[in-house]
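Researcher: I need the complex structure. Ligand is adenosine-5'-triphosphate. Inputs:
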Amino acid sequence: MLTLDEVCLDYGAFRALDRLSLAAAEGALVVLLGANGAGKSSIFRAVSGLHRLAAGRISLGGRDLAGVSPAGVVRAGLVHCPEGRMLFPAMTVEKNVRLGAYVHRRDRAGVKRGLDEVMAMFPVLAEKRHQPAGSLSGGQQQMVALGRALMGRPKVLLLDEPSLGLAPLVVRQMFDAVAAVNRRGTTVLLAEQNAHAALGIASHAYVVEGGRIVLDGPPDALRNDDRVRRAYLGG
Ligand code: ATP
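Model: Output:
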């Protein structure tokens, strides 16, 4: 349902994405593996309309996203949960989560229902809902960011490195939550450097290097690929 076709993206004279094509079928959990600077975040910026394409096409459910504003992309069902969480640390947990409903959900009952779902999914956030988001642990803040993204009722969720800087146990919880969101029917595109954990929940994976896709396949095939083992799975 989400397809990138020969996408090029430039930062000035630097070509960060070079004729990159990929697809995420409806209900899939697609992982993008790649080192720092490979182009994963640029893929997300391209998809969410934050950066204009130099060439190529991106479509969602058959609709071309060219020229659609970032808010229009959200309304079309695509929500981006950026790397580094981007919370408002002085605002409460609940207010941060509610912000995710801002672009296209104004009905009070719907927002309340969405909020209840997020709090049920992450009980620790329900306990801390009136505390400033900045007072939470890194993993809990990542849950706030994920909850905020879910408030936009995404058909497709773009998750940029949700495990960054988290302790292994918390990484596990985070990935369990992402898998649960996917099982409920949300298509997920997940950029990760933690290849072990990401391949554990993926239905399909792409390897990004130098702004191109160099390899893709089902998780088992990638786990058994020598290049992937050397570069991303520690031998
Ligand atoms: P990371 O995990 O570090 O975010 P990434 O795979 O997401 O890595 P991108 O952030 O997409 O990589 O960056 C791809 C390339 O584009 C890198 O070489 C980066 O230095 C460059 N780049 C990213 N943003 C800009 C920018 N605003 N101006 C110039 N170059 C940029």
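Model: Summary of the prediction. The beta strands are 2-11, 14-24, 29-33, 55-60, 63-64, 78-81, 156-160, 187-192, 204-209, 212-217.
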